[in-house]
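Section 3.1 - Work completed
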Amino acid sequence: MTDSSAPDDAAALPLDPAPSGAAERATATPPHFADGTARSLERGWIAASRFGGLVFFGILGALGSAFLLVAFALGKLGLPAFLGAGLVLAGVVGVALLLSVFWPKWEYGRAGYRILPDRIESWNGLVFRRAVSVPISRVQYTDVKQGPIQRHHGIATLAVHTAGTMSSDIEFPGLPPALANEIRDWLVSQTGSDAV
């Protein structure tokens, strides 16, 4: 004979009561983005990265050229040294500018992220690969960053800061701004803290 006073789902009850709100978070249906699917960055990331690289190496080339011109004008460099240094500078900056155009497209195919109900993962890098997997329980706070170039291309970066070493911090570049904010809000609800 069974005890009718015991609830039917007594076996499913935890032995230790969960902290306030933890049971609701644990049983809540994960949002659409926390389904474990590997996702690529938004294509706007390619254009934003290209623009950033072109501006950086363009400014570097202009500064190098100005330095050479001033050194030549002040007589610190003779004509052969000036021409040789100018050719080397032009070659280095030219290769850097070409890489700024092609590198983001190559890296785009090797960068992505995955969000699971209990952890977040990110990977990137073409030559030097980096893959980070962080349990959500270690998340301390997040930032959604969007500079003018990212705004122009309709993307944002979600930075997730964790407990422990800096190498376990994780960034999700190239997200749609609405999704970056949605993930940030979800992380706040999972940790139960406004510090996220």
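Second construct:
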Amino acid sequence: MSEETRQASLKLAVELEEEGQRYYRERAADAENPLARHLLETLAEQEIEHRDRVLKLAEGHGLPSDLQLETRDLESSVREVFESFSAEEREGWTTENVSVYEHAMELERKAYRLYRDLAEQSEDATEKRFFEALMREESMHLESLENVFLFFSSPGRWISVEESNRWNWMNA
């Protein structure tokens, strides 16, 4: 991949991460459901971490030797909020606007596809691993959104999700 194409792709990645961060912050501010609010706020924070890492790469600062992204385990974080409310309190939670989740999931899919393309096109092994790590993060974001969305909007569909992708603790 040419340096010009690489820089254009990195610029797009920064823009996607910033778009995601703005979207999640705005929707979190409007969210009445505490679980949705927490998930959206956490995603916003993680998108900024992604943006900062991509910016460093784009600006020529290279990659850190440790390619682990410093993000909290999203599932554990959401579970902590979920379990801080009783089953009776959770029954009163409403699904946020369906379009919020649909748009959020599409943002994550777009970012995943971009990082996949960058990983496939990268000629540098370390840079390739960096983009693969970002792919895993975006995949985790998508899984989180899908679990919360399906749990509130379609409990029957949530139960039918492949067990390895379903947060079984939400069935409490």
